[in-house]
Amino acid sequence: MKATETWVKAPPIRGARILLAAECVKNLYPEVFEELAKDRVVLTCCPEAENPTLLMGKLASMITCSKPVEITVASIEGSPHCLLLHMALNEALFVAKARDLVVRHYVVLDGRLIEVSEEAARLARYLHLVQKALEKCPELLEELGKYSLEHRWASGRQDVP
Question: Among 24, 36, 93, 110, which is least packed, fewest CB within 10 Å?
């Protein structure tokens, strides 16, 4: 089901374990998607094509009206659009004042599923704090170069396709 097109009181989501998955996870990594989808009600979204603010409001209403017991979000690592899924969920939890459900955040990197904390998603919104992390751990930029074509291009590396 598309997250933004699902009724907030739909019977399948009441008291459910929900997977909020980026459309790209479903399409590019079906085996990872199926692993996460097991025993969960699946809601999909593409924040590049859909309004992330609408998604946040929809999630807050779902949390308030249908009281899911768990929400797991999965996105593509490095996608600026997919990052918005994590931010929308965190904001929805805040708006709904919900602390009594299990929340898990995952990213898919080169076909590998990696769990990240809610705090990592929150931190990504505060660039001055990310800057402090870079100042304390400049080796992060070297690691970023392994994954980001944009970073390699900006740093003048020649190995950008």
Answer: 110
Q: Could you tell me which of 52, 126, 51, 112 has the C-alpha nearest to residue 78? A: 112
d(CA 11, CA 37): 18
If asked whether residues 24 and 47 sit together in one domain, one would say yes
CB atoms near residue 49 (< 10 Å): 9
Tell me, yes or no, whether 51 and 96 share the same domain.
yes
Q: How far apart are the first and last CA of the chain?
A: 36
* 20 and 57 co-located in one domain: yes
Q: What is the pLDDT of residues 96-124, one digit of tens each?
A: 999 999 999 999 999 999 999 999 999 99
pTM of the model: 0.92
Per-residue model confidence as pLDDT tens digits over 47-56: 999 988 999 9
For 117-161, how does the pLDDT look when each residue is reduced to its tens digit (9 = 90+)? 999 999 999 999 999 999 999 999 999 999 999 999 998 876 767
Distances (CA, A) of 95 to 8, 22, 61, 129, 137: 15, 22, 9, 23, 33
